[in-house]
Amino acid sequence: MMLSAALLLVFCPLYAQAFTQGSSFGVKNSVKSRFVALNLSQKDAADNRREFLNKATSSICLAGMSVGLVMPTESAMASGGATAGKYTTIPIAKRRYYGRVQQAVHEFLDLAPEVIAGDMTATKIQTFFDVTATVVVEAKNKSINGQCTKKDRDCKGKEVRDSRYNDMKTSMYLLGNAFRLNQQKAPDNLPTVKAAKAFFKDMDEMEKLCIKKPKKNDPKAQALYTRALDTLDIFLDLVELPPTDSGHYNQEFDTLVGATSRIT
User: Fold this and answer.
1) Rounded to whole angstroms, how far apart are CA atoms 242 and 219?
2) How far apart are CA 163 and CA 103, in angstroms?
3) For residue 177, which of 167, 166, 157, 191 has the smallest C-alpha distance?
4) From 85-99, 108-122, 203-217, the region with the lowest mean pLDDT
């Protein structure tokens, strides 16, 4: 409807031009007779005719608007489309993934003493890569108004478990993908995603060393951890989080979605 009103406003002057070129003979003849009767000069006649047509076309435009060709204000404010995404995507991604990423960084840094010792069989290192150790999605009670309507009477729900490292990979990738200003750019071309993948590459290799055949003294795993630590700092800077040596990650973090978009 707004488009129709806009077109009407654009073409109203064209209607006036059509009148002056003789496209509407009734109006033209009426105006001509009026000017002849008044015995005006040619210049005055042209000025008066222009004024008459302007008034006529203005009346047509106002009449069109009065019958509802103009869209309500609320509808106009609803527009925005994909262009609005660059203003909302990053804050939403922060609320969704900041907690998970920060908690993962906390647990990653907590591995340092064991990694320095070189013992890949240490409990913290094994737990970090254990796909059953971390509750990613808590079980939800599926009762309705306190009543279980399932046939098997089991409405407790099931929790989803995975390793902290796998959840770290997921949340880092999704958070990094949100830091974009061009919606057409492929995720793999984003600096944030590139940094995240560089971190994953080193940590995937370390995971294999720790899970398949963990050693009591593994210099290769130590080197991979050290390199991943440097890459992680690059990623954290790109997603507006403090560096690993800031002391910020000495605490645990809430991983619930929507808790906050700020650094907590």
Assistant:
1) 28
2) 13
3) 191
4) 85-99
